[in-house]
Design a protein that fits this description.
Elements lengths: L3 H14 L4 H8 L7 E3 L2 H4 L9 E4 L2 E5 L1 H5 L5 E2 L5 E7 L5 E12 L10 E7 L5 E10 L10 E6 L5 E3 L2 E5 L23 E9 L2 E3 L2 E5 L5 E7 L2 E3 L2 E3 L2 E3 H5 L5 H4 L15 E3 L3 E5 L4 E4 L2 E4 L6 E3 L2 E3 L3 E4 L8 E3 L2 E3 L5 E2 L5 E7 L18 E6 L12 E5 L1 E2 L2 E5 L10 E4 L21 E2 L2 E4 L5 E3 L3 E2 L2 E4 L3 E3 L5 E4 L1
Parallel strand pairs: 1-2, 2-6, 3-6, 5-7, 6-8, 7-9, 8-10, 8-11, 9-12, 10-13, 11-14, 12-15, 13-16, 14-17, 15-20, 16-23, 17-24, 20-25, 23-26, 24-27, 25-28, 26-29, 27-29, 29-30, 30-33, 31-34, 32-35, 33-36, 34-37, 35-38, 36-39, 37-40, 39-41
Antiparallel strand pairs: 4-5, 18-19, 21-22
Helix pairs in contact: 1-2
Length: 480
Amino acid sequence: MKPSFEVNNGLRFIRQYGRRSLAVLASVLAFPAFGAVKVESLEELLPYLDDDGVEVVMAPGTYRISTKDIKKKRFGVLDFEERAYVLLPFEGNGSTYDFTGVTLEVETGVFKMFGNKRVHELVVTGNENELKNLTMVDVGSVYDRPNKGALNVCIDGRDNRIEGFHISSKGSYPYGYGDAFGKGGNSTIPHAKHSSLLVRGLRNHVKDCTIIHRTYGHAIFMQAASYPTIEGCYVEGEVRKTDDMLAETSGPAYDIDFMTVWGYRLPPGYMMSLGEAGIRAYDGGTTMVDGEIIKRGTDNPTILNCTVKFMRTGVTIAHATGKKYVEGCVAIACENGFSLGTGGEVVNCSADCAYGPVYASTYERDKRYNADITILPAAVPYYNGSKSVAYIGGSGHYITLRGAAEALEEGYGIKVGGDKNNIRLLHGNLPNQNDFKAFDFELDNQTDYPVVLSEKSSGVTVRSKGEVRDQGTGNRVLRN
């Protein structure tokens, strides 16, 4: 006799879905182990997405959502904000979905099939669900433009876990320039972004996921997320020299003579990520938890043992509130390694300064962050237009920078206040993000890099193995 769970589940399924469910019931009865339900197609999977307490195992294989499927209206329901169509909405509670050996392909042409709405491939809105080991591949070109925007995965609800996903994202516009020509409301080239993974809701957890990010957008980002955890993830984007962008003889950037959104022509000599942040937190957003729509920022994020490569930032959680904790993370060849804003800790982390600083203060008002960062030798040729190893402004911090002699690059330095020389902040652009005062904090420089205490520094205590150039007032300089 089959376990009662399977029989009852199968009978309920027939009552709800009629004769079309017979194929699914057959697969249920053929898979008795542990009461799990086995499905062998996306059509068989769909009815289980709003069920509570089910364990679903999908048969290994490659499954595709195509533009033909959308024309036949097989996939796509409006999200709770009515701003995006969702292809696979997971709305149940306490369920497990095992996608080991499963590859889900989504044609990039699907991103143009829903009018002036975004397209979200997979969204979780229920509670206490576990989704694991799904490979997601966007099939098409990196230049395939969505009508409005796209997203691979979004997590709402509470206490959900996405584990072992492998996401290869493609399809955004423009691709190949990073944020030089716009990222928000203003732009010199209208854009349609595509991010990979959005964490919202309460106590949601992203674990051991890999994102191969080939789109203009964020890899992992948080909005309206309370106590999120991102653990053991690997993110890899792409970078490009501004010199190579300026060498183009056709295309959208050439057509506007490379005039950036910052109000000046794109400068040579910088390396830019073609995506946005590796891991990022925002101070606003909308989520749904237990059926309630909530508007709020992100609070109390925990980032553990993640590696981010070739992105605009490694881990930037400056706009989150509460306890901000980052441990065991590595930023490789990013435009910026870590940024905490006010409060929080960076513990036992590392980064190189090949393309930008290992740490950068976000605002002059940043206070009381503690950071312990090891500066790594770069595995790529240095192309850091700012020549900044780290940039520290604000007050009340304790920062330790470590690094072996082989990590040293001539002409680079640790900047304390003053001009960042960031590509986005030239010619007086965005003055609230540049030329900071730096005061009343401690810096322990255990590297051979020089420390430059700018004219805007005061009351800073520096212990340094490298040379210290003190242009400020009332600073205290000690030798390591």
